[in-house]
Amino acid sequence: MIASLLLTVIAAQAHATNLLEIYDRAAQNDPAIRQADATRLATREARPQAWAQLLPNISANANWSSVACGANSFQCPTPGIPAANLTGTDRAEPSTARGGSYGISAVESINLPLMLRNLKRTDYVLAQADLTYHAAEQDLAVRVAKAYFGVLSAQDVLNSAQGSLAAFNKQLEQQEKRFEVGLSANTDVQEARAARDSASAIVISSKRALASAQEQLRIIAGSIVDNLAAPIDDMPLIVPDPQSEEEWVKQSLDGNLNLAAARVALDAATYDLGTVKTYRYPSLTLGANYDNRKIFSDFDTQKGLNSWAGTIISVGISVPIFSGGMVSSQIRQDVYLQRAARENVELVTRQTDSGARDAYLGMQSAIALVQANKQALESAQLALQATEAGFDVGTRTTIDVLNSRKALLSAEVQYEQSRYDYISQLIVLKQVNGTLSRGDLELINSWLVK
Fold first, then answer.
1. Between 294 and which of 307, 329, 429, 450 could a Cys-Cys bridge form, CB atoms 3.0 to 4.6 Å apart?
2. pLDDT digits 0-9 by tens, 32-64
3. 187-219 pLDDT tens trace
4. 135 and 437 in contact (C-beta within 8 Å)?
5. Residue 109: beta bridge partners?
6. DSSP tag of 77
7. What pLDDT does residue 93 have?
8. Which residue intervals of 394-437 are DSSP H helices?
9. What's the half-sphere exposure (Cβ side, CA atoms, 13 Å) at 443?
């Protein structure tokens, strides 16, 4: 039983969180994507608000009042004398008048062309909101990948620095023993100590860099993750298909989500130019009102005698003649907004074109760099073995061994970094192309150590 519990604890500690798990956490906890989702939901309310303009406004009202009149007031009715016949010599007796009313009204102001165009415009608004949200989803995937592999890269640098420190400590011990028996000079000891001290400083700075990278990942994922799955040794290198820069540019200009959203915004701005002209159209106003009133007085012989109820139906038309130049100003404003939207499309088009070319060339370069760094790592390993063998027979010095170790550790870090850059570049290329999806993350996730 105890052995089983120990195995469970060890397995839990050994589990490495993978890229897909971090992405799922980020989808729930990242403030940027949650803000984008809330903005999209808020924008969707434009459709029911547009429909509301086609429906009447209905309201109900009710009130109750009580008025007490003094003995010297001329404003309260005198018994037996109609209020219209009161003279300055008439005095009202102390009395109280109470009354109340209730009613319901419905009003509808109809400018049908304007209402229908406002309803149609929500198609552009909702389309742009969806495109913007999906672009935010792709941006989240890119940010997660960069933060994820940023932590792995920082961890590799720290591991390399710690390995270097351990090797230099060992080298220093060897040199001190050789110096004690007279097999090496004090210069070799000091050089080994200087290398050890330098490696110790690099370890300190590497720990700080790792903490910063972990904090960046925590901001996105919502929690700190210490153990991340790294790429397997035989990670495949996928060549972009098609292998044509111009074809990738063409696909990106057709599929990039930010560019698509900019084009929808231009369509909406063009549509608004036709809408603002409908402000000059006449509006038809329809109204219906029901009102019920009752007034009670101390002098009424029949309570509630002063009361009435009625229904009023009204139809009117309003023709705008002059609005202080408001409509003309709005037309000019929409012309400028259309011009701004058109220039924004041109800007995003150029950015997409440049981004697609840069991502494609970066992908090609990343593949070549991984292959070159792999060869450099193998060469550095062989070089260190040869240097250590030469040191044992006296043909190489301590400095040669230290330099070979530094070269090997540097080659290891550069090789791993190039693999992370390759994965990040693949994600960026998909993002610019507009095809980045969860399936791409699942593919990359399959390249990580289980």
1. 307
2. 999 999 999 999 999 998 888 888 888 888 888
3. 777 877 887 888 889 899 999 999 999 999 999
4. no
5. 285
6. P
7. 54
8. 398-433
9. 12
Terminal C-alpha separation, the chain:
27
Q: Which domains does the chain have, with CATH numbers?
A: 20-55+111-281+323-445 (1.20.1600.10)
Q: What pLDDT, on the 0 to 100 scale, is given for residue 96?
A: 67
Mean pLDDT (the chain, rounded): 83
3-state secondary structure of 146: helix
Contact between residue 256 and residue 434 where contact means Cβ atoms under 8 Å apart: yes
What are the pLDDT digits (tens) for 74-83? 445 544 444 4
Helix 112-180 × helix 398-433 angle, to 10°: 170
Q: Which two tokens stand for residue 81?
A: 């004398």
pLDDT in tens, 396-429: 877 788 788 888 888 999 999 999 999 999 999 9
Can you list the residues of the chain whose pLDDT is less than 70?
1-14, 67-97, 183-185, 296-308
Q: What is the helix (H) or strand (E) element at residue 294, kind and residue range?
A: strand 283-297
The SS3 assignment for 322 reads coil
Which pair of structure tokens corresponds to residue 274? 């036709």
Q: Which amino acid belongs to residue 115? A: M
pTM score over 0.70: yes
Q: How far apart are CA 427 and CA 420, in angstroms?
A: 11
Both tokens of 397, joined, read 């010095």
- Rounded to whole angstroms, the Cα distance separating 175 from 308 reads 114
Residue type, 314: S
**In terms of Cα–Cα distance, which of 288, 291, 289 is closest to 101?**
291
Query: What pLDDT does 190 receive?
Result: 81
Instruction: Return left, alpha or beta for 438; rule: phi > 0 is left, psi -120 to 50 is alpha, else beta.
Output: alpha
Identity of the amino acid at 421: D
Contact status, residue 199 vs residue 168, Cβ threshold 8 Å: yes
Give the Cα separation of 188 and 177 in Å (integer).
Answer: 11
Contact 404, 195 (CB under 8 A): no
Residue 409: left if φ>0, alpha if ψ -120 to 50, beta else—which one? alpha
